[in-house]
């Protein structure tokens, strides 16, 4: 299948490279000529473990890179939007989504064959059919569902583990405005035979992404709030508290050898200095803002954000019980990333920085 992936961030580039590995003919599109030149040389502009050798193997063969979005769309059967959606001004910023949607729509105007446009960027429910689809129709002069399809295919990639997550997913969500759009997405994921595929509508696909990240964030803030109470009361070992919770048969099962095995979410049910990274804070805040806009206060998730924003200060408060002034105190920080294995080779990355409020002198 001929696929255009618009955006070469960690979602777009990883998706493009991995789809090439699966045998598709892929062209990665970016407006940044520097990024395109690096990709053409087999050098990823981002770091993801295992990405560079796959890029070098396929670039110039069934994987290309270009700044020419129009030509990429005209030559492809399906276009994937994988541009950034930063959180700013109390809501997600759709500037890049709107710009790319219009450019794709203008290309579709001159495209004679049926094509599918798929949103892979994380967008709040209602964005694909309420913003992207109308822009595509207006710019192309064509009708969605008749002349072209619209899909929503959320990503579940973890920075530092994105290649592995894409090649061995735990689920694939295929959202579409009609059966033909979903069929096109199914063609993209031919070869992913041992994973459950959920076929649904556009808004449900969008919500699944936010629901997944919000659950993880809630687990972290839940554990931290209990830890804060335990520290205030005194005499409570929060690590043992959470271990006692983990031993519940609701969360773990006893294996034949007598050991217990639980789901990965247990690692989020542990106290710490809060969640970070590029996804959880942004996505939870975006859903809270979206709920407020819809007239539905998201009280639980609002509290999750508040607990998380206060948590780094709690760490400093604990330190100051032993050192009233932290000025000149030599401190060891165990851990450099927001989760394990996201600082491979210690390359510079925003994912490899722990930011704490500045301690007063």
SSE layout and pairing:
Layout: E1 2-6, H1 10-21, E2 25-29, H2 33-40, H3 51-58, E3 63-66, H4 69-74, E4 78-81, E5 87-88, E6 91-92, H5 95-108, E7 115-119, H6 127-140, E8 148-152, H7 162-167, E9 172-176, H8 179-188, E10 197-200, H9 202-233, H10 238-246, E11 253-254, E12 260-261, H11 280-293, H12 299-322
Task: Indicate how many domains the architecture comprises.
Answer: 2
Averaged pLDDT, please? Answer: 91
Please tally the helical runs, counting DSSP H or I stretches of 4 or more residues.
Answer: 12
Order of helices and strands: EHEHHEHEEEHEHEHEHEHHEEHH
Terminal Cα span: 60 Å
Q: Helical residue percent?
A: 40-55%
CATH architecture tag of the largest domain: 3-Layer(aba) Sandwich
- Structure summary, number of beta strands: 12
Structural class designation = alpha/beta
Structural notes for this entry:
- By secondary structure, the protein is an alpha/beta fold.
- It folds into 2 domains: 2-200, Rossmann fold (3-Layer(aba) Sandwich); 234-352, Rossmann fold (3-Layer(aba) Sandwich), CATH 3.40.50.
- The chain is built from 12 helices and 12 strands.
- The protein has helices at residues 10-21, 33-40, 51-58, 69-74, 95-108, 127-140, 162-167, 179-188, 202-233, 238-246, 280-293, 299-322, and strands at 2-6, 25-29, 63-66, 78-81, 87-88, 91-92, 115-119, 148-152, 172-176, 197-200, 253-254, 260-261.
- Strands 3-2-1-4-7-8-9-10 form an 8-stranded mixed sheet, with helices on both faces. A two-stranded antiparallel ribbon has the order 5-6.
- Strand 5 (87-88) and strand 6 (91-92) form a beta hairpin.
- The termini are far apart.
- The model is unreliable at 344-361 (pLDDT under 50).
């Amino acid at each position: 299948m001929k696929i255009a992936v618009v955006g070469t961030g960690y979602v777009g580039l990883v998706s493009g490279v991995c789809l090439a590995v699966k045998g598709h003919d892929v062209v990665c599109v970016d407006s940044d000529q520097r990024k395109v030149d690096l990709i053409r040389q087999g050098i990823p502009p981002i770091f993801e473990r295992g990405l560079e050798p796959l890029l070098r193997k396929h670039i110039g063969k069934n994987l290309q890179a270009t700044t020419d979005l129009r030509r990429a769309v005209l030559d492809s059967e399906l276009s994937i939007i994988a541009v950034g959606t930063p959180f700013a001004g109390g809501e997600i910023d759709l500037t890049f989504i709107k710009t790319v949607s219009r450019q794709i729509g203008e290309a579709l105007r001159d495209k004679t064959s049926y094509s599918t446009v798929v949103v892979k960027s994380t967008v709040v429910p209602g964005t694909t059919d309420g913003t992207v689809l109308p822009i595509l129709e207006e710019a192309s002069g064509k009708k969605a569902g008749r002349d072209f399809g619209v899909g929503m295919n959320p990503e579940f990639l973890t920075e530092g583990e994105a290649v592995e997550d894409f090649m061995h997913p735990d689920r694939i969500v295929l959202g579409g405005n009609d059966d033909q759009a979903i069929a096109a997405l199914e063609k993209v994921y031919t070869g992913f035979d041992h994973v459950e595929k959920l076929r649904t509508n556009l808004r449900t696909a969008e919500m699944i992404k936010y629901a997944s990240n919000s659950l993880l964030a809630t687990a972290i803030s839940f554990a931290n709030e209990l830890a804060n109470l335990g520290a205030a009361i005194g005499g409570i070992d929060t690590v043992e508290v959470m271990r006692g919770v983990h031993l519940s048969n609701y969360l773990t099962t006893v294996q034949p050898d007598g050991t217990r095995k639980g789901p990965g979410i247990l690692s989020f049910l542990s106290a710490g200095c809060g969640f970070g990274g590029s996804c959880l804070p942004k996505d939870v805040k975006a859903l809270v803002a979206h709920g407020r806009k819809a007239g539905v206060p998201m009280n639980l998730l609002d509290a999750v954000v508040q607990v998380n924003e206060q948590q780094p200060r709690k760490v400093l408060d604990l330190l100051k019980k032993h050192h009233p002034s932290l000025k000149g105190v030599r401190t060891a920080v165990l851990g450099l990333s927001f989760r394990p294995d996201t600082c491979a080779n210690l390359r510079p990355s925003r994912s490899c920085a722990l930011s704490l409020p500045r301690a007063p002198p």
